[in-house]
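Supplementary notes (optional reading)

For those who missed the lab, this is the record we used. Protein: Stage V sporulation protein AE. Length: 116 residues.
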Amino acid sequence: MIFFWAFVVGGLICVIGQIMFDVFKLSPGHTLSILVVSGAILDGVGLYEPLIDFAGAGATVPITSFGNSLVHGAMQEAEKHGIIGVITGMFEVTSSGISAAIIFGMIGALIFKPKG
């Protein structure tokens, strides 16, 4: 049943993003920003962790999870180190994902030719 709910929740997040593109005519940047901020707000009010517990990968794979990770890391480190922890916590939790995106993007740019 966990696979079903992961599919439903992840699909619902993607449908919301597609509606932002098609109905509201938002740009990809605006849509991305809204989804990241939505994940951050949901984590800030304590609703994203129960969603992860319920849907698993359906809640951790979409871009909303990035906002969740930023806030979650900042809040954890703020408890330990105060205001400095807010900044270091965001980087500590998200650094591996951002580094992987940069490295794989560079590899892709070196291997493939653009169609220009």
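If you only remember one thing from this example: The two ends are 46 Å apart (CA to CA).
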